[in-house]
Specification:
Layout (H helix, E strand, L loop, with lengths): L14 E9 L2 E9 L1 E6 L6 H12 L12 E8 L2 E10 L2 E7 L6 H6 L1 E2 L4 H8 L3 H6 L4 H66 L8 H47 L5 H40 L15 H7 L4 E3 L6 E3 H91 L7 H36 L2 H44 L4 E15 L2 E15 L5 E4 L6 H18 L2 H4 L2 E4 L7 H12 L4 E6 L1 H6 L5 E3 L3
Parallel strand pairs: 3-14, 3-15, 7-13, 13-14
Antiparallel strand pairs: 1-2, 1-4, 4-5, 5-6, 8-9, 10-11, 11-12
């Protein structure tokens, strides 16, 4: 997985300028950054974190704070030819934001680019959170599953169409054979008809002198021919109607089966589901609000621990006096900006940890409610779909039955018509028998024979034409095969891509973490720490009403003894420095897997004090290869360890 930065290939401005007003502990300031690494160097409580928050505010993050004594603040970022501005206002005890920041949606950046101490990706490793859930959070898996279902439906339709073409192609040999047989029969009938007509003409010549007397006979014979033609057409229409009725009856049986298989649900069940959905939505909204409040409280307390001076009133902003000295000392207490009382740092840290635990519990509870909510929505959707399909199927059944009744009535009418025509022929033949003289004996039979041969020939020619039309239609349909196969191949490829997208993201995340963790451990050389990696496993789990495969990211640690023997360890036994590096590498993996550098070209690093200066320098150098703008807040002694050639800001 190679994501190393090539600035020549990225359309990223060379310089950015930030103007800040009343963010965190900053009154006002303006700074510029060059592409590459910028170090914010200074002692504790010198507004380095506040400046990082101002950058986050301009980029679009909501994880920022307004100066305690201010009612409004702003952050403006000039980046290339564009200017991005964000304003913060305090209203009724809450902070509202406005403006046009760099990002419309800051989720990816908050997770994997803004790596302050409270960053969730960094903290997830130390707390033992679900690493897989965090790395996959920006991926809309529900939308991917919905898209998969749509493509599966398209593929089924294409498969059905291709299967129909296979059936049609299989019919061609029989149709070709049938056409040949009918053509041969037509040729035989044409020969027979020609002979019969010649024989009739010969008979007519012999009785030519009596034609006037026999004109009535000829008329009757023509009437017989016409009536027989009508009978034949009526018979064919009856056969067509009967075939249609048979097809309709088969369809009716299928529709009835479908109707019996559909469950419409009762109104009580639907009402219950709708009420449960409404309740679950309200519970989820309440939990989301509580989670947001907990996160704000956690960030506030963490900032209070990191930069307590930013919460003081105006009169304490100078670095003179005992209160300032107290804050700048490495004290075990922190002065509360709201009441002025001193609170033990350990007590605040314990409270923050409890808040984090509560937030994680609420996140898990919200996840469970989301699963229940999806289950109820799916059930209700299925019921509604079944009700709609049931109504449509019921209407179709009624339509089929009406059509069967109509065609049955038509058969009765045609049957009566055929019987009337048969009676007319009987009457005509009786009249012909009476008119026929002995000399003209057999003329009626000859006319009948010619007439019947003409009927048969006409019917066979019509049958041949129908066969040829069917063959032409099949051949035309078969011409679609190549297009359908190409479409199916495209759909299959897209399905494969969709089905493997989630799996690929997970695999890439694990590979990225393992690769960079191995590289950094080799560079940082922690004593007896041999390897840290993520082991990805899969298990079956229920998600709503479906059974799905779920992955789990298990963090593995291997140490070695003095004599070189390897043994497995846990995250709890990592030093603070090792834990911080692991969290940062996990955040870097998310940054690269989700291509965050294409969304926002900034990465912010803070709270690296647990790592020694030499390793911080190596870490910064490593991260620099993957980020256009890397802005790092460091203590003075750590900043000196970072090699020259980087921008340094000391006055904020």
């Amino acid at each position: 997985m190679e994501h190393r930065l090539d600035t020549k290939k990225r359309d990223v401005p060379e310089e950015a300028t930030l103007v800040v007003d009343n963010i965190g502990g900053i009154d006002e300031t303006a700074v510029s950054f060059q592409q590459g690494v910028t170090v914010l160097s200074g002692r504790n409580a010198t507004n380095r974190t506040s400046l990082l928050q101002a950058i986050m505010a301009a980029l679009g993050s909501n994880q920022v704070s307004l100066k305690a004594d201010a009612t409004e603040g702003s952050a403006m970022l000039e980046f290339g030819d564009e200017t991005y501005r964000r304003t913060l206002q305090r209203r009724n005890g809450t902070i509202t934001t406005d403006g046009e920041p760099y990002l419309d949606d800051p989720e990816l950046a908050d997770l994997f680019a803004f790596l302050l101490e409270s960053n969730e990706a960094r903290r997830a490793v130390a707390r033992g959170d679900d690493l897989r859930e965090l790395i996959m959070r920006p991926v809309d898996t529900a939308a991917i599953r919905s898209e998969i279902e749509q493509y599966e439906q398209r593929k089924r339709e294409l498969d059905d169409q291709l299967a129909q073409l296979d059936d049609l192609e299989g019919r061609l040999p029989d149709l070709e054979a049938k056409r040949k047989r009918v053509t041969d029969e037509i040729e035989t009938l044409e020969v027979d008809l020609e002979e019969a007509r010649a024989k009739l003409d010969e008979t007519n010549v012999n009785v030519e002198e009596r034609r006037e007397e026999q004109s009535e006979l000829e008329t009757k014979l023509d009437e017989v021919r016409t009536t027989r033609s009508e009978i034949e057409r009526t018979r064919e229409r009856i056969e067509t109607e009967r075939a249609s009725i048979e097809a309709l009856e088969d369809e009716r049986d299928q529709v009835r089966d479908t109707l019996e298989s559909l469950s419409t649900g009762d109104e009580t069940e639907i009402g219950r589901l709708e009420a449960e959905i409404e309740t679950l939505q309200a519970e989820k909204a309440d939990l989301s609000e509580e989670i947001s409040q907990l996160q704000s409280t956690i960030q506030f307390n963490e900032q209070l621990l990191d930069e307590p001076e930013s919460f003081l009133e105006d009169e304490t902003e100078t670095n003179d006096g005992p209160l300032t000295d107290q804050l700048l000392d490495d004290s075990e207490t922190v002065t509360c900006w709201t009441c002025g009382s001193s609170v033990a740092r350990e007590q605040i840290e314990t409270t923050v940890e409890q808040l984090r635990t509560a937030r994680q519990e609420r996140l898990e509870e919200r996840s469970e409610i989301s699963a229940e909510l999806n289950d109820r929505r799916e059930t209700l959707s299925t019921i509604n779909e079944n009700r709609t399909e049931y109504q449509q199927t019921q209407r179709r059944l009624e339509s089929i039955e009406d059509e069967i009744d109509r065609r049955s009535e038509r058969i009765e009418e045609l049957t009566e018509e055929r019987e009337q025509l048969t009676e007319e022929i009987d009457a005509l033949e009786a009249e012909i028998d009476a008119l026929e003289t002995e000399e003209q004996s057999g003329v009626l039979d000859q006319h009948k024979e010619v007439n019947q041969l003409e009927f048969k020939l006409e019917r066979k020619e019509r049958e041949r034409d129908e066969i040829e039309d069917e063959i032409s239609e099949i051949e035309s349909r078969l011409d679609e095969r190549e297009t359908l196969e190409a479409r199916r191949e495209d759909v299959t490829d897209e399905l494969t891509t969709l089905r493997t997208r989630i799996d690929q993201i997970e695999a890439d995340a694990v590979d990225a973490f393992n690769e960079h963790m191995e590289n950094l451990l080799e560079t940082l050389r922690y004593e007896n720490l041999e390897r840290i990696w993520i082991d990805r496993t899969t298990r079956e789990a229920r998600e709503g009403r479906r059974k799905v495969s779920k992955s789990s990211f298990d963090l593995k640690i291997v140490r070695s003894t003095d004599d070189g023997a390897a043994y497995e360890d846990t995250i709890d036994h990592l030093s603070e420095s090792e834990r911080e590096v692991t969290g940062l590498v996990f955040a870097l993996a998310g940054y690269l897997v989700h291509d965050v550098y294409e969304t926002v070209p900034f990465m912010l690093l803070d709270s690296l004090e647990a790592i020694d200066s030499e390793r911080i320098a190596a870490l910064v150098e490593y991260f620099e290869s993957y980020v256009p703008y890397l802005i790092v807040a460091l203590l003075e002694e750590d900043a000196q360890a970072v090699e020259g050639g980087h921008g340094v800001i000391t006055d904020i």
